[in-house]
Specification:
Blueprint lengths: L1 H13 L1 H20 L32 H38 L5 H14 L7 H11 L5 H12 L5 H6 L6 E2 L5 E2 L11 E3 L4 H14 L4 H12 L6 H4 L11 H13 L4
Antiparallel strand pairs: 1-3, 2-3
Helix pairs in contact: 1-2, 3-4, 3-6, 3-8, 4-5, 6-11
Length: 271
């Protein structure tokens, strides 16, 4: 950039009108350079070239793996790091909530700011409680990990081991719905008066995170959260088989769906 300033200064000495025009051009160039990220790669998450309807660039082609045992192993290996990353985010939120709780209860000098942060955290988990103590109590139940075994079993079940149309084209491994036109893919067997679509995600990681937030916030899975909270109070390990009992509303099949998820956890020795 030094040479540009040199040219600009020399022009100033000769012609001030020229300087005005040159200054505008130089300013625009600096803005454009500042906005450009030279570290972006063509396939990065922030690349405008990414096609969010096509997950093939991230999701392995599991349909090509003919050996069932190998397919299962590869599927689990692919998904485990993403589950752990999402659970790690939840653990961070737990630490944040404990910090905010301490500041609020001790009426520290920034307790007002802590209350605002707590409200924002509550909203992200579907809470609108005005009482701070009630907010804390409910968040302590909602902000908790989802067992890896449960995530793996549901992902395998809902995505046909990563081969379904929705997993391949929309990064959706869990069959999550959305209700705004164009928000996802329209199911081929959707009834005429139905409005839902199968939600599209920019990445498998975002799908996993959204799935966990869904279980931790939607009223349909209150039973799952109650079971988990009870296990916590008893000092017991949070198991996927136990939490699966709270998934009756996840599928129209109800109890049969729950039994199938539990069977998948046991057959694949996930815990």
């Amino acid at each position: 950039m030094t040479s540009y300033f040199k040219i600009f200064f020399q022009a100033f000495l000769k012609d001030k009108s020229y300087v005005l025009n040159a200054g505008i051009v130089l300013l625009l160039m600096m803005v454009l350079l500042a906005q450009h990220d030279w570290n972006l790669k063509p396939n990065s998450d922030f690349s405008p070239q990414e096609n969010i309807f096509d997950a093939r660039s991230e999701l392995p082609d599991f349909s090509k793996i003919k050996n069932t045992k190998e397919k299962k192993i590869k599927f689990f290996e692919f998904l485990r790091p993403k589950i752990r990353r999402a659970n790690q985010k939840i653990k961070y939120q737990q630490v944040l909530m404990q910090k905010l709780t301490s500041e609020i209860k001790n009426e520290s000098y920034h307790s007002d700011n802590s209350k605002k942060k707590l409200i924002r955290l509550g909203v992200s988990y579907g809470l609108k409680k005005e009482n701070v103590l009630e907010q804390l109590a409910e968040l302590s139940v909602r902000i908790d990990i989802i067992p890896e075994a449960l995530v793996l079993a549901q992902a395998a079940n809902e995505s046909a081991w990563g081969t379904s149309r929705f997993s391949v084209q929309a990064n959706n491994l869990f069959g999550q719905w959305c209700f705004t036109k164009g928000c996802g893919l329209v199911p081929k067997n959707r009834s005429g008066n139905a409005k839902h679509e199968v939600r599209k995600f920019q990445s498998i990681q975002s799908a996993v995170t959204s799935y966990m937030k869904n279980l931790n916030s939607h009223r349909a899975y209150k039973t799952l959260r109650t079971i988990r909270a009870s296990l916590r109070q008893q000092g017991r390990v949070i198991k996927g088989i136990k939490l699966a009992q709270g998934l009756k509303s996840y599928s129209e099949r109800g109890d049969a769906y729950v039994e199938e998820i539990i069977r998948m956890i046991r057959q694949n020795q996930l815990e």
